[in-house]
Amino acid sequence: MSIQVESPAKMAQLASPVEIEGRSMAILYGSETGNAEEIAIELEDMARRLHFHTRMDEMDSFKLSDLLKVSLVVFVTSTTGQGDMPTNTLNFWKNLRREKLNNSNCLGPVKFAIFGLGDSGYRKFNWAARKLQVRLLQLGATEFFRAAEADERHNNGIDSIYLPWKEEFKAALLEKYPLPEGTAPIPNDQLLPPKYSVRVMPTMEPLPADKSATQSALYSHVDNPTPLSQRRFEHNQRQDATFPAWEAREDQGWEIRTGTPVDVLDKNNILKDHPSKYSLETTKKVGPRTPLPTRLAIPQGVFAKVVDNARVTPFDHWQDVRHIVFDVYGGEKLISKVSDMRGQSILSIYPKNYPEDVQELINLMGWNDVADKPLDMSNKPKRVFDRVDSQPSTLRDILTDNLDITAIPKRNFIRELTFFTKNRDEVERLWEFLLPGNEQEFYDYTSRPRRTILELLSDFPGVKIPVERVLDLFPVIRHRDFSVCNGGASLTENQYDPDAPNGTLPVFPLRIEILAALVEYKTIIRKPRQGLCSRYLKYLARDTPLTVRISPSRGENVMMPLPTAVQRPLIAVATGTGIAPIRALIQERLEYEVDTQVGETVLFYGGRNRDRDYHFGGEWEYIKGLTVFPCFSRDEKPAALEKKEEEEKKEGGNVWEKPSKTEEEENVEFGIVEEMDPDRGKRYVQNEIRKRAKEVAGLMRRGPVVAVCGSAGKMPIAVRKAFVDVLVGEKLVRDREEGERWLGMRVVYWEDTW
Ligand SMILES: Cc1cc2nc3c(=O)[nH]c(=O)nc-3n(C[C@H](O)[C@H](O)[C@H](O)COP(=O)(O)O)c2cc1C
User: Fold this and answer.
1) Ligand 1 centroid to 121 CA: how many Å?
2) Among residues 42, 365, 452, 589, which is most buried (max CB within 10 A)?
3) What is the domain range of residue 708?
4) Which ligand 1 atom is nearest residue 83's CA?
């Protein structure tokens, strides 16, 4: 295939869309982890090439009245929670649902199209897109093109539906909005002008080379209270300053020990279901250099300081779960806001890239001369935050704080790279990934092994991205949300607010705790995979300052334990780190004990092994009115399991076994089928609920609050079925249908799963 390549030097000759009256498009997205945003970016690129004047933004940044100002609106939204709208659509959605708009036909002139992203493993498949579509039609808007519902479970994921939809959509646009004579669509192999503007300002001298090294060394340890981690702490001095020598040595370590690497990590839950295959065996003795603890000017952000960062799972356990404690300085306002959230709050953390990764990218791109000079960013994405110190950001700063250089590369990114290499072989190889019919190759190279942008760029050394394009090309780092796991507005001893001017009164910081399961695993790529946030949290040291955000639990069915709800019994079901919001709820209820009769609490906790993942298990016996039924799926047959894991190890851990059980058998074991014998399956929470039918039915009669937290997928479905089984079995209702109605009307049923 031969492709005409623009050399970077000729970048000024860009193909610009022409202005055509009555040809404008808004592309509005709702996204939690970036998939919908990525599609919105692609659709905008397509629309610009068809000479539409475009505006692409999160739904929440768009006013309802602005919908009337464009020729077309394309909505791209994922579904989150249990059929919920994504967080960055909630304001827009609230406005759209205002009662006074009913029957107003206020969106009469609006033409729209919707693309939904979902996962058919969830009961409410693509509900966000469906709800949005229904409401827009109710308000008089017209659907310009058929809606699509992409399913992540499809063979090629979202693309299976998206790619053909996009082609049809493009054809419909050209048909209904024909271009004037003499104007043709801009072909895909011509570069469009950048959307954002970045310019290196030549004035500032580069920072001294060792400045960042000295400062970050102060923060390069994990502070754990356990004796083992104490030993780690003592050894945790940087031993080798020249990346990547030390880490690379460590990485080779695990590969030699485990034999052949693993090549498949493409199924949900695979890591959890086959921990011995994918988890890393060693714990590193030396942590990498951590990013500078500079704080970011995040809107509604508050200042926080790390108080503790303790691993709560044993070191030889496959999963590193952290209990991380922060002091948050938000003053009276924050304290009252958190009290209002009543044990259901979310802490958002903004992770950063590590200095060695940033330096590697700078080397690869040849940016060493400009990396530490200030940038003029007159137009930048909203989520590119400045640092609090108000110095102009440098390229190194934004690569550290804002741009996700270790994300899995998406199609847009690869397509743009074709413009920035002079090497024709590279251009052809990059294009190969993008050609129709090559979706599998693209997936095998990117998502399957979880290859990062940085790794892709080192596979294509001819690619040199101009600094002016960085904001257009790299995805922006997304914050990660964690359920706060302590309740009550717990204040710590008075301290001085580090942000306040000298001489002001001491403040009481708010203590906020989270339980974070770090994502670390191996694939065919030699270097272990680590989530960006996991890596950041793993080495987050005591006293590290950072900016965080605290917000109420999302979703439309958030259950607030208001005083009346507190008097009801609570049936809590938690698996693994799902215990975090439940612990917060339990602690929050205790706050009411002084002047209210708090209802009793029953907790069904599900884990694998009592001695490995019974998070906070030691705390329960001290809580009045709480009964706990812990169940551990792997404690029952340790010998058999050990044997199986040994066998997996001998095979080198690289063979993806077909499940030995059929879906139906798995469902029986998992308690999803009706009328099963609770003693037949493993010790899962749903089986335990059936086993305790009498106690559960007793609580059900009293209109309890039911809270189910943990992994999404089969667990919440199985648990709900178990509750219905109990209602039927204990003759509270005649049949399952009535049981479902009971749960809907007589119980406050809250799910928080992920
Ligand atoms: C915590 C969580 C909850 C989800 N809930 C649903 C759901 O209720 N219905 C659905 O169809 N998909 C659900 N999904 C699947 C997402 O919609 C899907 O992964 C999508 O690609 C995410 O796109 P985003 O990155 O733009 O948010 C859920 C995914 C997660 C992680």
Assistant:
1) 10
2) 589
3) 563-651+663-753
4) 8
